[in-house]
């Protein structure tokens, strides 16, 4: 996802670099990182917009930011995050 245009539409970049505008959220698939300690963004619920690290993939156990708070979240509530970090 490159940009969010409204609460239910966005602009996405394909693997071959093309931009596709006006995609509806229902058309997207959640991507959960494969590696341990990879960053994810919470996209649904009260913690939406927060970035954390995935601690356990089997049940999507996520530690938010530098906070000690660890939450079990459904896979539909998170996505792989490749944006900049606060300390970058």
Automatic annotation (TrEMBL):
GO terms for biological process: mRNA splicing, via spliceosome. The keyword Nucleus applies. The keyword Ligase does not apply. Its main location: nucleus. It holds the Pfam family GPKOW_C. GO terms for cellular component: spliceosomal complex. Keywords: mRNA processing, mRNA splicing, Nucleus. It is found in: Nucleus. Belongs to the MOS2 family. RNA-binding protein involved in pre-mRNA splicing. This is G-patch domain and KOW motifs-containing protein.
